[in-house]
Amino acid sequence: MSLIGRFKDRLFCDLAIDLGTANTLVFLKGKGIIVQEPSIVVVNKDNGKVEAVGKSAKDMLGKTPTSVLAIKPMRDGVIADFEIAEKMLDYFIKKSTNNRSFLIRPRIVIGIPTGITQVERRAVKDVAMRAKASEVYLVEQPMSASVGAELPISEPTGNMVVDIGGGTTDIAVISMNGLVFNHSIRIAGNEMDEAITQYIKKKYNLLIGEKTSEQIKMQIGSAYPLDEPITMEIKGRDLREGIPKTIVIDDQEIREAIEDVISSVIDAVRISLEKTPPELSADIIDRGVVLTGGGALLKNLDKRIQEETQLPVFITENPLTTVVLGAGRMLEDLELLKKVSLI
């Protein structure tokens, strides 16, 4: 690479970040998605040293000695542990830029839930600034998802986006680069995992770990009956006898376990539809509802929402990356970024 090429490479270091409860994704301008890892940090309690971040930290969940603690610094889409969140963000930024020192500190766009408070927004901004950002733009996740899904958000037409993450479900109706209506509930993928854990504990007297409940959701979880029933063998600890035990569960049981969570998400969609201005409602009838976020991958969730609302429902091409891709596209369109970012 020429000297000019290296100079440009050092200049263009702008980042887009989807700082999620379950996963953090980082998009480097000109390169694409560089980081896609769990939002988990493993810390040594004795000296405060970070032992692992991201995927390697998730692999340690439930397996660490008492001197080592696995921490999720994000809860319900907001920062729950400021210090650990800063260390995690700093790690991901360095990883995405290969630890290079830049002549210009990066401009960072961060996707945030719609329902967070001013104090919570400030916490996100402060963490990014302390992680060496020059400027920080906060963009609501449904807006980023709309850009990532290439919806015509600048036109005077209604676009409804339902973003189901790990900690929050964000629903927004977007028109002319603005949120006409938005509704956020702190019920999403993590609540499904917890519901599965509690269901199996109550029905089978079996204690399972966090990773196991997530695997169950991903493998046999569904929001609507499947064409073919599926089963899964799971392992846990028998609460009566205190010894390891293996059982087989099916998709119908897991539907029953997560029904309350699914109902809450659908109720939130209904509330949003009821409060949407009539003219934009007509657009949504024609254009349908766009589903994104990790929760959109739950089997037949689109069918369930379609049946309950009588509206067409579409899942974005890659629900896990839609928000960060949208935020990344805004790095190329600063005029749009300034219009949609929060002060």
How is this structure best summarized?
This protein is α+β, with helices and mostly antiparallel strands and 343 residues long. 40% of the residues lie in helices and 27% in strands.
Q: SSE layout and pairings?
A:
Elements: H1 3-11, E1 15-19, E2 23-28, E3 32-38, E4 41-44, E5 50-53, H2 55-58, E6 68-71, E7 74-75, E8 78-79, H3 82-96, E9 107-112, H4 118-130, E10 135-140, H5 141-148, E11 159-164, E12 169-175, E13 178-185, H6 189-204, E14 206-207, H7 210-220, E15 231-238, E16 244-250, H8 251-274, H9 278-287, E17 289-292, H10 301-309, E18 313-315, H11 322-332, H12 334-340
Parallel strand pairs: 1-9, 9-10, 11-17, 17-18
Antiparallel strand pairs: 1-2, 2-3, 4-5, 4-6, 7-8, 11-12, 12-13, 14-15, 15-16
Low-confidence stretches: 1-11
What is the count of helical runs?
12
The helicity comes to 25-40%
Compressed to H and E, one letter per element, the order equals HEEEEEHEEEHEHEHEEEHEHEEHHEHEHH
Strand content: 25-35%
